[in-house]
Amino acid sequence: MFVKKDFELIFTDRLDCEHLLVQVRFKNIELCEISKENGNDHMEIEMFCNDPLYNELNIKFPLDDFLEALRVAKAKLMAL
């Protein structure tokens, strides 16, 4: 399902997860995966990065925290 130009959402099922996951892709590159394994109020986002500096790091955090950081960053940048 395409959301915006070049952005695609792919809903998928994994054996190790009770709920569906959604992959967010940009130009067919998987950017992140969003999971609701901890419930609707505690969704997590896992970022995928091809940079060798981060190959061994698990970049996973609460989705709401990330969305709030993006909202604040956008507002601050617009105010400059």
Could you provide a short overview of the structure?
This protein has 80 residues and is of the alpha+beta class. 21% of the residues lie in helices and 38% in strands. A hairpin with a 2-residue loop joins β1 and β2 (7-12).
Write the layout of secondary structure elements.
Layout: E1 2-4, E2 7-12, E3 21-26, E4 29-35, E5 44-47, E6 59-62, H1 63-79
Antiparallel strand pairs: 1-2, 2-3, 3-4, 4-5, 5-6
Written account of the structure:
This protein has 80 residues and is α+β, with helices and mostly antiparallel strands. It is built from 1 helix and 6 strands. The chain has one helix spanning 63-79; strands at 2-4, 7-12, 21-26, 29-35, 44-47, 59-62. Strands 1-2-3-4-5-6 form a 6-stranded antiparallel sheet. The N and C termini lie far apart (35 Å). The model has no long low-confidence stretch (mean pLDDT 86).
What is the SS-derived class?
A: alpha+beta
- How many structural domains does the protein architecture include? 1
Please estimate the helix content. 10-25%
Uncertain ranges: none
Which labels suit this protein?
80 residues; alpha+beta; globular; six-stranded antiparallel sheet; 1 helix
